[in-house]
Amino acid sequence: MQNSNDDRYFKKDGRTVNKNYIAKKHSKEKDKKLFSKWFVIFLIFLTLASIVYSIYSHAYMKISEIYISGNNITSDAEIIAQLGNPIGENILLYKTDMDESNISKLPYIDKVSVKKVFPNLLSINVDEDYPTFFQNSDEKKYYISNKGILLGEDLNDFDESLLKEIQGANLKKAVGENFTGSEASLNFIKAIQVFSYFNEVKQLNLENKADIGIMINDIDVKFGDLNDIDYKLKILDNILNDAREKSITITSIDLDNGENPIVNVSPDSYSENLNY
Fold first, then answer.
1. Which of 15, 147, 231, 269 has the fewest CB atoms nearer than 10 Å to its CB?
2. Contact 212, 204 (CB under 8 A)
3. Per the database record, which ranges form the POTRA domain (predicted)?
4. How many CB atoms within 10 Å of residue 236?
């Protein structure tokens, strides 16, 4: 029988309660509090902080490559020089605004875009505007940009040997505007610049839109009219590449014959294997 003076028991809410039971219950409540929602939130925060720190400090997120595109006149070295030294910088913290501003100060750079490509690449795309053509008119030489914009009569600090001559275009002499009102001619001179053989072009004859002429080194190319420009330029590219691979000397090409261009080959390098 329970002793009312037994120190192991006491009255609570009209009930006799064992002190050992109360002690165990309090102990469990303390254990539960160790894993309260705030403790869990702290653990999550600590984990996220560790992840973020690892991302920012890990070599995997440091710039190690620079890819440059769109530049024909401006060298990669000139562009990279405007960046300072981004190699080794954390790509997340790296600011591109200043780079775009610095690169745009270079001669012939019209537009520039610097983008971060995760985890470690800077991609730089430039749009250049530079002298590419000239046309003689009224005993004066007028310079034209790669975009077909008339630059005027003055050419500062540019290698004229890189320029291609345009003949016969109906030249509009408003500096800063298209050199011609012919949309087809503008499309033609822009499209031909994509191909590698453009570096070997000496002259473009735009006098007759139905009989465009191209002089590529010593090869006289009869381009025909300005229909199907892209198709005919690709055909011309295939012919020139094939001739180069076979060491064949071509004297003239007639593209104004639909799908069957006529290729005249020097007798000294004639090959029966030449098929187009």
1. 15
2. yes
3. 61-129
4. 21
Confidence of residue 228 (pLDDT cuts 50, 70, 90): very high
- Is the pLDDT assigned to residue 10 strictly greater than 60? no
Q: What is the DSSP letter of 149?
A: B
What does the chain come to in residues? 276
Which of these, 178, 173, 137, 141, lies nearest to 160 by C-alpha position? 141
Q: Say which residues have a Cβ less than 8 Å from residue 60's Cβ, sequence separation at least 6.
A: 119, 120
Q: CB–CB of 170/209 below 8 Å?
A: no
Please report where in the chains the tokens 């003076």 appear, as a residue: 5
Report the distance separating Cα 45 and Cα 92, nearest Å: 20
State which amino acid sits at residue 115.
K
Locate 24 and state its tokens: 């165990």
Nearest alpha-carbon partner for 201 in 245, 236, 169? 236
Give, in order, the Cα–Cα distances in Å from 161 to each of 25, 28, 194, 199, 206.
Answer: 95, 90, 19, 11, 21
Which amino acid makes up residue 78? E
Residue 15: the pLDDT is: 59
Tell me the C-alpha distance between 143 and 141, whole Å: 7
H/E run at residue 60: none
Q: What is the pLDDT of residues 107-164, one digit of tens each?
A: 999 999 999 998 899 999 999 999 999 999 988 999 999 999 999 998 888 888 899 9
